[in-house]
Amino acid sequence: MKDKRQQILETALKLFVENGFHATPTSMIAKEAGVATGTLFHHFKTKEELINTLYLETKEILIQALTKQVNEQDTLKSKFRQVFYNAINWAISHPDHQFFYSQYSYSPFISTLTRELGLQRFHVIQELLKEGQENDILKAIPIGLMIDTAQGTLDGITNYLMEHPEKIDDREFTEQAFSMFWDVLKG
Amino acid sequence: MKDKRQQILETALKLFVENGFHATPTSMIAKEAGVATGTLFHHFKTKEELINTLYLETKEILIQALTKQVNEQDTLKSKFRQVFYNAINWAISHPDHQFFYSQYSYSPFISTLTRELGLQRFHVIQELLKEGQENDILKAIPIGLMIDTAQGTLDGITNYLMEHPEKIDDREFTEQAFSMFWDVLKG
Amino acid sequence: MKDKRQQILETALKLFVENGFHATPTSMIAKEAGVATGTLFHHFKTKEELINTLYLETKEILIQALTKQVNEQDTLKSKFRQVFYNAINWAISHPDHQFFYSQYSYSPFISTLTRELGLQRFHVIQELLKEGQENDILKAIPIGLMIDTAQGTLDGITNYLMEHPEKIDDREFTEQAFSMFWDVLKG
Amino acid sequence: MKDKRQQILETALKLFVENGFHATPTSMIAKEAGVATGTLFHHFKTKEELINTLYLETKEILIQALTKQVNEQDTLKSKFRQVFYNAINWAISHPDHQFFYSQYSYSPFISTLTRELGLQRFHVIQELLKEGQENDILKAIPIGLMIDTAQGTLDGITNYLMEHPEKIDDREFTEQAFSMFWDVLKG
DNA sequence: GATGAATGAGCCTTCATTCAT
DNA sequence: TATGAATGAAGGCTCATTCAT
């Protein structure tokens, strides 16, 4: 039998995505996870701690996923392409995590923290953006605008793919999508 | 003295933005608005109806704002530019409405509705996008992807401006921002 | 029908005396009082506030009772006698309040406040004690010791009477009891 | 390293005095004592058993302390004086035990038992009281009243000393205090 | 003996909503 | 229209206790 703590985390992720944080009682999580309510609070002092733990774990694996094989590319553009494919592939194959991440990011009760954490998420991209600006490949605009816009564009594309997951295997389509992403950035 | 119904709506908007829907009890809204709890439910049958009313009103004025003076422009690009400025100016001058709108859109308990509504919001843009594709000015890609990406990019830019509101008066900056928006779309 | 708030207070007093604060759930109070749980919390923000309200009210009527007719007496001794009878009569006729008062006073979660409040309770006696010392009628010892001891002696006598309430009508007995109280104090 | 059982008892005493029985979870006792929760319940079947054990031990050493050297005195008064000093010295040097004892005595969930136990505590005094009455040295009043009043007076004095511990070394003061105690009793 | 994860009944409190005035 | 006391289902969390290791 799986570790109860892990079982709770997985169940919580699923239910949060389905119903949202507030509409998911801890009792429901416990029941669905097959544990007692006390067990949930044995592992996570509060509901909020459970949510945060989930977020932190999600962020960690997301960052891992985004970074993969990026540095093995030669040109800056291929590096961006790699990040781009990493991002959309991850979203498609981990839809729950992806939804959870959005939900958490827009949740008002964590506003301040969120921004900072949101940036961490795109740390790889930020580095590439800076590099590209220094080499005059990308637009010469405030880095902050660049980051927010890149993130927005990528989110837009991801949103579409989440609703049309079959497109992920259509290389022509994904290349078109990537060209949009690239066009926002390149100078 | 202002109309009580209106007072409730304004107070609710402010509090929802500050705390989120779920963390804002109707009792708090009533108290802050200076009315009895019964009065709130006299005007709005349920809390959800209050939220929806707020959303509908917001959407209406947002659409009005986005559309303004668009058809007075000659080229497609200037039309997009006009929409772009309309969007960012509105966001900056109505931050509460803007936040409320995002929050509502990402709220899981209205998921199905959201898509549809989100589209309505960008109805102007959609029309322009179609027009641009038909005239081979914009990228020849699925219209859905185009819409989602345009919306994402615009949201990204808006996010940045919300945190740096002083930039709204820096024409050079806003033109750079617009160029990003335009580059995503143009073929 | 009686005022609900009052009904809650009376029921709570009864139950607290029977079971103690901790062993009396608010749900039990509400049910026994014939109101909804929400009603209890509508009138008292927390369980603790309910307890404190009960204490304050009890203290008030106790003080009133102790003071009665004291100043109509001529000698200091008769004043003390009056207070003494006031105290034991009140205890016998309001056993619940009396028990509640003891329980509250010894409750560890209100330690600091208690001392101070306990003194208020015996404000009348304190004044008499000071007067007696100034006139060399009472023992010339630190007033604090005098107060605490007087209170202790009176509590002891009261305790006995609570278990033998019939004695309250035995004038010979009560006079013997009073002589004990008086002997502790007189110089 | 100290015996775990003993460690639990000592920690429990300290915490009960600080927070009261109900506000002291067994988990807190275990943690503070540096043992596992299971260990606590290995030594004491229930929380109540732990409390009772603590009470019994306290009572035992209290009785020992009160009795010390009493029978070595010649007159009844010196015997009372001896008990008196035994009582206040013990209270001052074992404040936690003293507080615990009071708390236990006033705890509503052991009401019935309490009376009986309270009597045991003053068994020495009771014997002396009886002896004194038989020899016409003490007041000729119901022995029950005598016991309760003596206890009350002594508690009052003790309370004062607990708050002014430095007075314990002021022989003039303690003799004044004793005279109060003696005056309540003597005929 | 010792451990600590697991249990689940039960507690305090919240909050959307109703209704008599 | 407006009021606010009253409602009660539901939620987060606690805590004494058990039990497999």
- Give me the number of helical elements of chain A: 10
**How many β-strands of chain A, per DSSP?**
0
Class by alpha and beta content of chain A: mainly alpha
Low-confidence stretches of chain A: none
Global outline of chain A: elongated
Count of domains of chain A: 2
The name of the CATH topology of the largest domain in chain A is Tetracycline Repressor, domain 2
The termini of chain A sit apart by 54 Å
Strand content of chain A: under 5%
Mean pLDDT of chain A: 90
Chain-wise SSE layout:
Four copies of one chain form a homotetramer.
Chain A: H1 4-19, H2 26-33, H3 37-43, H4 47-67, H5 76-93, H6 95-106, H7 111-121, H8 123-134, H9 143-163, H10 171-185
Helix pairs in contact in A: 1-2, 1-6, 4-5, 5-6, 5-8, 5-9, 5-10, 9-10
Chain B binds a DNA duplex (21 and 21 nucleotides) through helix 2 and helix 3.
Index terms:
homotetramer; 187 residues; mainly alpha; Arc Repressor Mutant, subunit A; Tetracycline Repressor, domain 2; 2 domains; 0% strand; DNA-binding
Give a quick summary of the entry.
The first copy, chain A, is mostly helical and about 190 residues long. Chain A contains ten helices and no strands.
